[in-house]
Structures are given as C-alpha cells and as structure tokens.
Design a protein that fits this description.
With about 325 residues, the protein is mainly β. The chain contains no helices and 29 strands. Strands 1-26-25-24-23 form a five-stranded antiparallel β-sheet, with no helix packed on it. Strands 2-29-28-27 form a four-stranded antiparallel β-sheet, with no helix packed on it. Strand 15 and strand 16 form a beta hairpin. It is globular and about 45 Å long.
C-alpha cells in the first residue's frame, strides 16, 4: 500500500529510529515529545522538528509501555514525567537532567501497560496484566489504593467488581479528577470514583488493546477504540453510558484501533491510528466525516495531538516517528 494524504492532515517529517517505538506523549506546551522504546529507553525529541534532545535510560531492558508528563510545578512543566515498564516498574524522570528521581517496583503486578496523570498532578493511575488499577500519590510515589478484583470481597455478579482481564488504557475525567475510566481485554470500560475501591458503573463492548480511551474536552463524551473489525471507534455519552456514534463499520473503512484521542480544545475533533488498513485519521466526532487521512504500508501503535492542535505524531510498527501538520476545515 502506498502512502496517501487527504486535505487536513499533511505529513511534515518522518524519522526512522533503530529502537522499536511503543508509546509517546507531548509535554504540556508541546515543546518536547517523549517516546517509549522496546529496549527500555525513553527518547525525548523536540516537538516542532522531531530532533532528538535527550535519552533517558537505566538498567532495564524491558519495554517502556506508557508515559505521561506531569503538570506544571514551579514552572517545571517541560521536565517531569511518569513512565511504566513491562517489568512492573514505575519511574519518575526529570527530563533535562536525564535523572530518575524515584522508582517503585510492583512485584505482584506483572507487566504494567498504561498510566494516566490527574489534572492537578497530585496522583496518577497505573494498569496492567494483573487486572488491577492502582492509585499513586505523586508526592511520595507510593500506592494509596487498589481498584479491582484484588481489593473486592464478595460474589454478587450484579455489582461491578472491576476488570477480569488485562488493562490497557486509563483516563481521568477532565473536570473532576475523582472520576476516571479504565479499559482492556474484558470488553468493559470501568468507571471509577477514586474514593471507592469498586467501580461506580461500567460500559460493555469496547475491546481495548492500547491507548484508546479519551474524554472530550468538556467531559461529556468518551471516545473508545477497539482492536477489531467492527465497532472499532465509538463515541459514548458519558452521563447515560449509551453509544452516540460508531465509525468505520463499512468494509473499506475498517481499522483495528490501537490508539485514539480527542483534540485538546475542539470538542468534536477526533484522531485515531491502527492496523489492517494502516491509517492515521482525523475526523469530526459528531458527523463522522473524515477530514484527513494518511494510509501507510505499515501499522501504527500510538498517536498524540499537540496541545495547540496544529500538529500530531504517529508511531509506526517500522520504528518510524511521523509528524503531521493539521489544517482544520473552515
């Protein structure tokens, strides 16, 4: 398949690295883009050019599976991030000094696959192969609560108990950091009040295998991406738990989604990447109209939107960092 581009999504640069690229995240102003690698390193690139600026590495050869920057503290918004590893390790990094400030090994958790940071930065969540969501206090870098089967006693099947399979995605509600969602291989999205140890409710259906949970900026809608042929990208009304829109069910549009995200500002701007049709897509989340599309010969593992919404990145299975310019429709 040859690469092709539609109007609103323009490929600016492709950078091929030696390392396998599994995950990425912009910092809060988009000046840096951190990439988690299969060899355990984190490569930090400049958000505008893609030029490599820093490498964060330690004696851990297992993959970095997810990373997120921490919010601004004393003007330090470019510098601090949390990363999780397939080894079960959680590390907090100071980027420009290339220093690991703290680490915590979850010996019973197996591989960690996802992390989300609260808006205030006071806490963060991790999830992984043991089905449990853990709440960390950012200040002391320690677990304060476990959410899921390991924290629940009882067998009432009518009461939400938490995940029964691997967790691959986490997201905080944008206006209430006591509320968060998690999703994975058990085809549920668990909705948590983080002051409790069991879910408040859950959605049934999404089969999530990557960073594929995202709230709209106003928190009214939840975007889910599923690794399957049908119902692979859906918008849910968060209050009612009902599906508002399903995309890409036509045979020529099918995409097995690994990662999806709302824009940071525009309520209905949606981005997704995946495999099978190997596309990066930008669409209107209310109408489903595709505003930009890039088709590639290789699949994509992750994507992210610049905080200004004028650009985005996508990570291909062939170790490629692709940077795109976004031209919004009038």
């Amino acid at each position: 398949m040859q690469a092709s581009v539609q109007s609103c999504l323009q490929l600016r640069n492709t950078i091929t690295l030696q390392d396998e690229l599994l995950c990425g995240a912009y910092n809060l102003d988009g000046s840096f883009l951190a990439l988690g690698c299969g060899n355990g390193a984190i490569r930090v690139h400049r958000g505008s050019t893609g030029e490599e600026a820093y490498v964060l590495a330690i004696d851990d050869s297992l993959p970095v599976t997810c990373l997120r920057y921490l919010p601004d503290v004393d003007g330090d918004h470019k510098n601090r991030m949390v990363a999780v590893y397939a080894s079960g390790m959680v590390r907090r990094w100071h980027v420009t000094s290339q220093t690991c400030q703290s680490e915590h090994k979850l010996d019973t958790a197996g591989a960690l696959t996802t992390v989300a940071v609260s808006q205030s930065g006071k806490q963060f969540l991790t999830g992984g192969t043991d089905f449990i969501v853990r709440v960390f206090d950012s200040a002391v870098h320690r677990v304060t609560r476990q959410l899921g089967p390991g924290a629940i006693h009882g067998s009432d099947a009518s009461v939400p108990q938490g995940h029964t399979n691997r967790v691959f995605a986490l997201a905080y509600h944008p206006t209430d950091e006591n509320i968060a969602v998690s999703g994975g291989w058990d085809k549920t999205v668990q909705i948590w009040d983080l002051r409790q140890s069991r879910p408040a409710r859950y959605l049934t259906g999404p089969y999530i295998s990557g960073s594929a949970l995202s709230f709209s900026p106003d928190g009214k809608n939840l975007l889910t991406g599923s690794y399957r042929e049908h119902d692979s990208l859906q918008v849910w009304d968060f209050a009612s738990g009902k599906v508002r829109k399903t995309f890409f069910n036509e045979p020529n549009q099918s995409c097995w989604v690994f990662s999806c995200q709302y824009g940071a500002k525009t309520p209905d701007l949606v981005f997704s990447v995946g495999v099978k049709n190997n596309s990066v897509r930008m669409l209107d989340g209310s109408t489903g109209k595709v505003q930009g599309q890039f088709d590639h010969e290789h699949g994509f593992f992750d994507c992210g939107v610049h905080p200004s919404e004028d650009s985005m990145f996508a990570l291909s299975s062939k170790h490629e960092l692709m940077l795109f310019d976004i031209k919004k429709e009038a």
